[in-house]
Amino acid sequence: MKKKYGLIFMILIFFPYITPISTGVDTQPWALIFSMIVFIYSMLENNFGVNKQLVVSLLIALIATFSFVFYFLAGFSTIIEGIRSLLGYWSLFFIPYTTIKYKDRMDGKYLKIFCYIWVCVALIQYFIYPDFGISIMNRLWRSGNRGVTALAPEPAWLGRWGVFVIIINDYFKMNKLINSKDYGIVFAICILLIFLSASGMGIAWLSVYLVLRLLVEILYKKSIKNVIITILSMLAFSFMFLQIPMFSNSRAGILIRMFLENPSSLKIFAGVTLRLGNPIRAFYGGLIVMRGLGFGIGSTILSDTLLPQWLIDTLSITGIDIYWGGRVRGGLVSFVYELGIIGLVYIAYILFIFIKPIVIGNKKKIKEHIICFYGGLLIIFASQFIEGSMMNPLFSFVLGLNMIYLKENRKKLKKPV
Predict the structure, then answer these.
(1) Where is the chain membrane-spanning (predicted)?
(2) Cα–Cα distance for residue pair 247/146, rounded to 1 Å
(3) 379 with 398: CB under 8 angstroms?
(4) Per-residue confidence (pLDDT) for residue 209, from 0 to 100
(5) What is the pLDDT of residue 27?
(6) Do residues 231 and 189 lie in contact, with contact meaning Cβ atoms separated by under 8 Å?
(7) Is 128 helix (H, G, I), strand (E, B) or coil?
(8) Long-range CB contacts for residues 209-215, cutoff 8 Å, separation at least 24
(9) Where are the alpha helices (DSSP H) in 74-132?
(10) DSSP character for 299?
């Protein structure tokens, strides 16, 4: 029975966008709700020990909750926006908690099965019926030159899902939770999904990962075979999106060509502008406009205020033309927008958790893990920093995996005397 609970948890983590009922949100709260039930049940059994690294997440979630109550009672916050934000904060506590609790119930074979399901849906959408799967999601959005979505609302979200799973797959391999054959299958499927999504951001993060992997193969493993395979894969990938019409005419192909020809021309794409503007809006608004206090949880204060003219003029030089246009809704930077300095400290803490073994550890002991987990973690952090719902259970799951690794390898990571 315990293994079944572990499987249910993994299903909710790796299928974050499907829902049996309409919830009004793209990223579903089911993994969070399940994790809350696990926490409550553990409390009733008097077996709810909390990893000390999660204490900060619990404290920040409580601060965010009090902030929402204060702004709501003052008439500056709305129920829907407030709850949506709070779910993100509480996800970073409850989901890592359950990940740690169920660490012995994870099986890499399930990861392979999940990938099979995702790629089957993607292939059906690509070759047979583009809207396949929409009935079990809140929405499915595509345009003419964009790729498939599989079981995600947008192609970009599918691309990010593929990148996240590649890193999780590396963790499973590092901890012997998946065999080499299944590891290769999951890796290949994720790359295929990223290609089918034709997501510019997905392709960008995959490229960073492949370059990082190439460097490790050269500097640490010194495997000529793997170096050649990695280089050929990168060349094939470049050729596909620059020369083959099926890929070059996709959104990712267009973005790649525009970047190579004239990077400033990317400003015509709203997605690019949003990703560049989110951090600026969050930091300027939460730290300067609100004097380090943030706009509050679910707050609508100054949400339609224009950026100061001097900043608009400065940004226009780089091709960024943005306005407040509402709240900063996604990414870790939303913490700064909502909580100001407290949010900034929280982001720094999460980053520290991600890189802690490299900072304090004996590098000779952990060098083989740099690419398979910690290099990938930095990619995930950078991706989640500027975009993506903080309700995304994959991010919280990865945070939990990192905490597991830190706890189980504490002695190995200490500096030698």
Answers:
(1) 5-22, 28-44, 56-80, 86-102, 114-136, 156-172, 184-207, 227-248, 282-302, 335-354, 366-384, 390-406
(2) 10
(3) no
(4) 86
(5) 92
(6) no
(7) coil
(8) 209/163, 209/166, 209/167, 209/375, 209/376, 209/379, 210/234, 210/237, 212/371, 212/375, 212/376, 212/379, 213/371, 213/375, 215/371
(9) 79-101, 108-127
(10) B
Q: Which amino acid is at 91?
A: S
Distance, CA of 148 to chain centre: 19
Q: Pick the residue with more confidence: 63 or 198?
A: 63
- Whether the model clears a pTM of 0.70, i.e. scores above it, the answer is yes
In sequence order, the 6+-apart residues with CB closer than 8 A to the CB of 231 are 214
For 296-326, letters b (16+ CB in 10 Å) and e give bbbbbbeeeeebeeebeeebeeebbebebee
Q: Is the pLDDT of residue 395 over 90?
A: yes
Taking the C-alpha atoms of residue 47 and residue 39, their distance in angstroms, rounded to an integer, is: 9
Measuring CA to CA, which residue among 35, 91, 61, 56 is closest to residue 297? 61
Token duo for residue 25:
């949100």
Sign, Cα dihedral of 182, 187, 192, 197: positive
**Which residue, among 153, 163, 171, 148, has the nearest Cα to 383 in the 3D structure?**
163
Choose among 199, 387, 201: nearest CA to 281.
387
Q: Tokens representing 328?
A: 């900063």
Return mean pLDDT, the chain.
81
Distance of CA 92 to the CA centre of its chain: 12
**What distance, in Å, lies between the first and last C-alpha atoms of the chain?**
45
Which band of pLDDT confidence, cut at 50, 70 and 90, is reported for residue 120? very high
Tokens at 229, concatenated: 């395979």
What does the pLDDT look like over 167-216, one tens digit per residue? 999 889 888 899 989 999 999 999 999 989 888 788 888 888 888 777 77
What is the C-alpha separation between 204 and 271, in angstroms, rounded? 14
CA-closest candidate to residue 82, choices 281, 304, 299, 290: 299
pLDDT tens profile 152-172: 998 889 999 999 999 999 889
- Please give the angle made by the CA atoms of 403, 174 and 55, to the nearest 5 degrees: 0
32, amino acid identity: L
